[in-house]
Amino acid sequence: MKKRLSNPYKERINCAWVKFHRRGVAAVEFALCSPLIVLLLLGLWEVGRIAQVSNILQNGAREAARDASLGQDNLQTVASNLAAYLQGALPTAFGQGHATTLQTPSIALPANTIGYTCWDNTANRELFTITFTDITNPNITDPTAMQKLDHYQIGIQVPYSTIGWTIFPQITGINRISITLDWASMRDAPFQITPALPAQ
User: Fold this and answer.
1) At what angle do helices 75-89 and 8-69 cross, to 10 degrees?
2) For residue 180, what are the domain limits?
3) How many structural domains is the chain composed of?
4) What phi and psi values does residue 129 have, to the nearest 5 degrees?
5) 42-158-151 Cα angle (round to 5)
6) C-beta contacts of 78-84 below 8 A and 24+ residues apart
7) Which residues, in sequence order, are CB contacts of 35 under 8 Å at separation 6+?
8) In a domain, 6, yes or no
9) 13 contacts: CB under 8 Å, gap ≥ 6
10) Between vectors from CA 187 to CA 181 and to CA 193, what angle results, nearest 5°?
11) Partner of 87 for a Cys bridge, out of 3, 26, 96, 196, CB 3.0 to 4.6 A?
């Protein structure tokens, strides 16, 4: 059986033809896959943003709850301190340097819950809404009126448009991110000091 000799010239032509057409196939493959890759990257980017903001809101709620637990600051002062914290943590999202006011909540609140909405006057948008609920004594409407070891909740709600980067709300229908934290009042119980020592 004779071995067929290959034609080097013909092989060179075939190799060039394959290389030329492979470049076209790679371009078509990239064109078909690039929208999926971009969508995947945008999703990862947005999930990372949500995780970042949720972590900052959790820390902010903890600071606000600790502030309220002392019973020395009213809810308006707690909300102002929270605004300063959030503006320091996420300056662009929470309008650092913008004029803000605390006003009546722009959302419906549950029964026995009070709150304030921090409004950005410069950008004309809601930054966040803070809520306070005394679980032990629902009639109490301010941290300064709590008793020792009262169980209460501090909640923070942020419009997704404030912190989001993509069209996530239009896809999922989620318009707000909310954090609720349970805490106990650390206010000292009142006690009386006898001015004079009893006679011995």
Assistant:
1) 160
2) 28-184
3) 1
4) -125, 130
5) 130
6) 78/130, 78/132, 78/143, 78/154, 79/116, 79/118, 79/130, 82/118, 82/128, 82/130, 82/156, 83/118, 83/127, 83/128
7) none
8) no
9) none
10) 170
11) 96
* Residue among 163, 200, 199, 195 at smallest CA distance from 179: 163
Give the amino acid at 116. Y
Asked if 127 contacts 99 with a C-beta cutoff of 8 angstroms, the reply is: no
- At 100, list the tokens: 């803000």
Please state, in angstroms and rounded to a whole number, the distance separating the CA atoms of residues 56 and 51.
Answer: 9
Residue type at 52 in one-letter notation: Q
Burial class of residue 84 (count of CB atoms within 10 Å of its CB; 0-12, 13-18, 19+): middle
Q: For 101, phi and psi rounded to 5 degrees?
A: -135, 150
Measured CA angle at 107 (ends 91, 60), to 5 deg: 35
3-state SS class at 91: coil
Specify if 129 maps to a domain. Answer: yes
Q: Are strands 125-134 and 176-184 parallel, antiparallel or unpaired?
A: unpaired
Rounded to 5°, the CA angle 62-64-70 comes to 105
Indicate whether 3 belongs to any domain. no
pLDDT at residue 168 in the model: 65
Mean pLDDT, consecutive 10-residue stretches, the chain (200 aa), reads 54 56 71 88 84 92 94 94 94 89 91 94 93 95 92 94 71 82 86 67
Q: Would you say residue 172 lies in a domain?
A: yes
